[in-house]
């Protein structure tokens, strides 16, 4: 029984028959691969932190015996200030009308924000070249700017040759 070669194409490239010769069409990888950055939501901690602080502040102002006046809050006084207006502003400021947060429940509620910050920190630490100094980065920027200037000079030389018809 004769053996047959597989009909499917092999995913691996076959080496060249001549040793130490690069294959035709072999990818040359001189440019660094682009870094895939994490999604922006990874670093979006301000809205949950803002909501937590609003809940904490609303609990403190409600516990003091009523809403603070504009002067106590450090805000500009509003045109019409009724007795229930401060409470309405606080409720609308909390957005979804979440219950006020007492100081004893703060660590529990803040743990999710802490976890998000820790995850964002880990993502930043895993990025390539995060340990490079500013001097190293400035040196690379200077080298890249010099390379851009040389490439622009080559392009302008090609443009001059095309204009003269050489």
Automatic annotation (TrEMBL):
Region feature Disordered, mapped onto this chain: 1-44, 57-103
InterPro entries found in the cross-reference section: Med7/Med21-like, Med9
Listed Pfam families: Med9
Highest taxon above the source species: Eukaryota
Gene Ontology CC terms: mediator complex
Localization per record: Nucleus
GO MF entries: transcription coregulator activity
GO biological process, one term: regulation of transcription by RNA polymerase II
Keywords, in A-Z order: Activator, Coiled coil, Nucleus, Transcription, Transcription regulation
Residue ranges of coiled coil: 127-161
Biased composition annotated in UniProt, kind: Low complexity: 70-90
Subunit text: Component of the Mediator complex.
Function summary: Component of the Mediator complex, a coactivator involved in the regulated transcription of nearly all RNA polymerase II-dependent genes. Mediator functions as a bridge to convey information from gene-specific regulatory proteins to the basal RNA polymerase II transcription machinery. Mediator is recruited to promoters by direct interactions with regulatory proteins and serves as a scaffold for the assembly of a functional preinitiation complex with RNA polymerase II and the general transcription factors.
Family affiliation: Belongs to the Mediator complex subunit 9 family.
Record's protein name: Mediator of RNA polymerase II transcription subunit 9
Name of the gene: MED9
